[in-house]
Specification:
41% helix, four-stranded antiparallel beta sheet, alpha+beta, two-stranded antiparallel sheet, single chain
């Protein structure tokens, strides 16, 4: 496959990033003039991989947390109190208790996924809290599914076979988030890209896009991240 392109810092990565084409992507910043190059075939050692071709998803043989173990979405994953906050009192004691219960239930799985993909578990918790409040059955009006609200194209790109399965969903979402951190080397930008897409972050000069939804989302995730203990 030929070199993708060479350009100034304000660039759009090729559309293959959002269409699942299987190719590693490397980045090089020329120290002399600040020009940025992206390629799938680096020709010198200055290039740094920012997106690795996803390998087929390998399900952990056993996920252990809370003193229990499971192999999938049934069993321990089958119960719990999920769903949106009560309409009239989002900060009610019942809702806070449900969130804590759900967070504790999935803490071991989240820690293992974070460790496998080089993430801070607190950041993974923050994204999941903002996306679904730890609800594996959540579906958005745009079609995003599961605890990390994966769009079907993203789920397919990362080999997620069942986006409703917390193991599948969290491992796929964690890998996507890890790739975004590798691309931008900045937590707020990676979080913005998780919401709005990496091409939108690049389009606006590697800054948080001027979308109210995305700006609110980044603020919410970082708030959860900073408060997580």
């Amino acid at each position: 496959m030929p070199r993708l392109f060479r350009s100034l810092p304000l660039v759009l990565l090729p559309c293959f990033l959002s269409h699942g084409v299987q190719a590693d992507v490397y980045k090089y910043v020329n120290p002399a003039n600040g020009h940025v190059e992206y390629t799938d075939k680096p020709d010198h050692k200055g290039f740094r991989m920012i997106i690795e071709t996803p390998e087929p998803f390998t399900r952990p043989t056993k996920v252990t947390f809370g003193g229990k173990s499971t192999l999938g979405a049934k069993g321990l994953f089958g119960g719990g109190l999920f769903g949106a906050a009560p309409a009239n009192n989002a900060k009610s004691a019942a809702h806070r208790a449900a969130l804590e219960r759900n967070r504790s239930q999935y803490a071991g799985l989240i820690a293992e996924a974070a460790s496998r993909h080089g993430l801070d578990p607190a950041l993974l918790h923050a994204v999941i809290r903002a996306e679904s409040s730890y609800n594996p059955g959540a579906v958005s009006n745009k079609g995003a599914i599961g605890m990390m609200q994966l769009m079907p194209a993203t789920a397919a790109r990362y080999g997620v076979q069942d986006p409703y399965d917390p193991v599948d969903n969290i491992y796929g979402g964690a890998r996507y988030l890890s790739d975004l951190l590798g691309m931008f080397d900045d937590v707020p930008l990676a979080v913005a890209a998780y919401n709005a897409g990496e091409n939108n972050v690049i389009k606006y000069g590697n800054r948080i896009p001027p979308f109210q939804e995305t700006q609110n989302y980044v603020s919410r995730v970082l708030g959860y991240y900073n408060r997580f203990d």
